[in-house]
Amino acid sequence: MEYVNPEGLRLDGRRPMEMRQLRAEIGVVSKADGSAVFEMGNTKVIAAVYGPREVQNRSQQSNDQALVRCEYSMANFSTGDRMRKPKGDRRSTEISLVIRQTMEACILTHLMPRSQIDIFVQVLQADGGTRSACINAATLALADAGIPMCDLVTSCSAGYLNGTPLLDLNYVEDSAGGPDVTVGILPKLDKVTLLQMDSKLQVDTFENVMQLAIEGCKAVASYIREILLENTKQLESRRGVK
Amino acid sequence: MEGDEEKFVTPGEVLGKATELKAGKGAYVSADDRTVYASLTGFRSLTPPPEGSDDPRPTVEVKGHKAHGPVPEPGLVVIARVTKVMAKMASADIMCVGPKSVREKFTGIIRQQDVRATEIDKVDMHASFRPGDIVRALVLSLGDARAYYLSTAKNELGVVSAESQAGATMIPISWTEMQCPLTGQVEQRKVAKAGA
């Protein structure tokens, strides 16, 4: 199957180095301390953050840092065929763990000892790249909740099909069976916090694909920063500051 | 738009060098102690160093937009409602820290020796507090895992408002007694000095 046609266009008309359209909104769940909706093309994800609040399970309480919990689930209607078991299956547990480790690396947990931060992410529409969209949504929700972080975490995926590195795979390209590299970075500190890959790649090709994914992450970071600025300006104007 | 002279920052942005700035709230110093980064989203502000300190560096802070509920700190005056009265201590739910009300309730304990300043071993807890009383107390310390330690051992601390057995709000008549306006019955409490 041809994923990149001779003119250099992909199945959805994008160029190989082009990301899907990004859209984000903050403060969508009023009960949560912080929340966000993040869309990458057709993939739509909602994240809600509760915390810092008192630890519910005393045995897990830590005296010198906050406990970070994360739960990833997919809505039944998020994929083409209605899903039977959206939570608790192996893939969801693995992604929950991955998101928790990624966010824990950037939250300044030592500032909030004996407390708990809950991150809930749910996929509303799945079209490839749900892991990345979840991390981006979680970053926005944490920033909205005012939880101190050392940097924003942004994530993007890239693949390699028909001899071309492709940025931001959608579901069809992802199911082609080629390699899928997901990268999560701290854009200002220039550090990698998440690096996952399916399938196999030659090392030099891998470096190109990873570099492409990192460029994608930086583009997401500048978009997230714009959204946060807009949101803060709106809040300031509503409060009548200056 | 408003406030643009103060720079808008997001987490991870460089605020300055650690040699020139001190990290305040919403900022942190990197592991190698060289750069100050932001940890919150908001507007940065510089405060000059306090008078008479030997550190000449100004403090940089990032003010976020989410107001978190206040948290009791040692040395602050809090308003609490007494929930349980036992032989050697009373339990209270802290409802306000200073002038602000808390978002989630905190538990505090007033021990027998912290009720008043004089004759502390002769204190009768039931003659000082009753469940349902509103007290003004001082936070002594973070206490143990279960509760903050509170003290009412000052003239202006103690029961501020209490209901009599008849159900009316009582009037304070001395630092140990309050009177019910409906029945005239006098009840014993550790009363806070009114006014101020």
TL;DR?
The complex is a heterodimer of chains A (242) and B (196). With 242 residues, chain A is of the alpha+beta class. Chain A has 4 helices and 9 strands; from the N terminus they run ββββαβαββαββα.
List the helices and strands and how they pair.
The complex is a heterodimer of chains A (242) and B (196).
Chain A: E1 22-26, E2 34-40, E3 43-54, E4 67-74, H1 90-106, E5 115-125, H2 130-145, E6 154-161, E7 164-167, H3 171-174, E8 180-186, E9 191-198, H4 203-238
Parallel strand pairs in A: 4-5
Antiparallel strand pairs in A: 1-2, 2-3, 3-5, 6-7, 6-8, 8-9
Chain B: E1 8-9, E2 14-17, E3 22-23, E4 27-29, E5 35-38, E6 42-47, E7 59-63, E8 77-85, E9 89-97, E10 100-111, E11 134-141, E12 148-151, E13 158-161, E14 171-172, E15 177-179, E16 186-188
Parallel strand pairs in B: 3-7, 10-12
Antiparallel strand pairs in B: 1-6, 2-5, 4-5, 6-7, 8-9, 8-11, 9-10, 11-12, 11-13, 14-15, 15-16
| Tally of domains of chain B | 2
Order of SSEs of chain B? EEEEEEEEEEEEEEEE
- Summing up helix and strand content along with how strands pair, one would put the structural category of chain A as alpha+beta
CATH homology superfamily name of the largest domain in chain B = Nucleic acid-binding proteins
**Structural class category of chain B:** mainly beta
> What fraction, in percent, of the residue positions of chain B are helical?
under 10%
Strand content of chain B: 35-45%
Radius of gyration of chain B: 23 Å
Q: Low-confidence parts of chain A, pLDDT < 50 over ≥5 residues?
A: none
Compute the number of strand runs of chain A: 9
Q: What's the gyration radius of chain A in Å?
A: 18 Å
Keywords (chain A): Cytoplasm, Exosome
Pfam families (chain A): RNase_PH, RNase_PH_C
Domain Exoribonuclease phosphorolytic (chain A): 18-148, 151-216
Family (chain A): Belongs to the RNase PH family.
